[in-house]
Amino acid sequence: MPVSPPPGAPAPTGATPPAAREATLKVPAFVYRVARFVVHAVCRLYWRVTVRGPGTVPDSGPVILAPVHRNFMDFFVVSEVTRRKIFYMAKDDLWGNRFLGALLDALGAFPVNREGTDRLAFDRAQAVLERGDVLILFPEGTRRSGPVVEDLHEGAAFLSTRTGAPIVPIGIGGSSRIMPKGGHVPRPTKVCLVVGPPLEPPARSERGRVPRHQVHALTERLAGEVQRLYDEAQAAAGIPNQP
Q1: Cys-Cys crosslink for 157: which of 122, 172, 206, 219, Cβ 3.0 to 4.6 Å?
Q2: Mean local confidence (pLDDT), 103-114
Q3: Under a CB-based contact definition with an 8 Å cutoff, are residues 161 and 214 in contact?
Q4: Which ranges constitute the DSSP H helices of 107-243?
Q5: Residue 7 within a domain
Q6: Three-class SS state of 234
């Protein structure tokens, strides 16, 4: 789900109009608290989620969480690394149902058009960080399989340089066993999260810009850290991460 247009790129065409992507209902705030409690209970009791290095997620200020992505349930287990509310993207056609759209809004989701680079979703992601919140952005763009982390999108690095938000790389071990391909019911299993130290964005120039090569370099650093943490998390979950 790429969201990082290159600097100076024109806004893409064909995206869903903003008016069609806004929930028309409001959900009470307590719904989020209830959902968070349920997710926490499932993570700790059913998937036996453990977290290493949770103190590396800042308690305040903008943060980009950048986990490896091997299972749809990664959205839920990543919430265990912080008590802060996490904001994330979901495919925009879910907002076609006004009730589901309202619920997703309450849970911190915002829509993205996955057919191509979505400038509106990028602007919303940037707004989350500019107001000092936590954004989860899977740098691989979509769910992948296998032990190797590769072909990262530059969205996380680009947003980091635009907003000054640090990127926190996260390895998730064992989540691929929750619901293997073809499965329909999540399985009880052991999942381990390993949280790495935040990666700070490069300083901007006097003109307020960051050269493209520095965005690429930050993405390369992120790739190395996510791979290292993924290997460690897999080992902690009892899965050899051999290519």
Answers
A1: 219
A2: 86
A3: yes
A4: 119-130, 155-163, 212-236
A5: no
A6: helix
Domain that holds residue 166: 19-236
Inform me whether the pLDDT recorded for 19 exceeds 50. no
Beta-strand relationship, 167-173 and 192-195: antiparallel
Q: Is 78 helix (H, G, I), strand (E, B) or coil?
A: helix
Order of all β-strands in the sheet with 86-91 = 50-52, 192-195, 167-173, 63-67, 134-136, 86-91, 109-112
> Residue 81: which of 58, 116, 51 has the closest Cα?
51
Q: Which ranges in 46-118 belong to alpha helices (H)? A: 74-77, 98-106
CA 75 to chain centre: 7
On whether residue 190 sits in a domain, the answer given is yes
Helix pair 98-106, 30-41: axis angle to 10 deg: 80
Q: Tell me the three state secondary structure of residue 226.
A: helix
Which CATH number belongs to the domain containing residue 29 in this structure? 3.40.1130.10
In a domain, 11, yes or no: no
| Local structure of 148: helix, strand or coil | coil
162-172 pLDDT, tens digit per residue, is: 999 999 999 99
- Per the DSSP assignment, residues forming a β-bridge with 170 are 67, 195
Count of domains observed in the chain: 1
Band (14; pLDDT cuts 50, 70, 90)? very low
- In-domain check, residue 3: no
Give the E-state strand segments of 41-147 in sequence order.
50-52, 63-67, 86-91, 109-112, 134-136
Is residue 241 classed exposed, middle or buried when 0-12, 13-18 and 19+ CB atoms within 10 A define those classes? middle
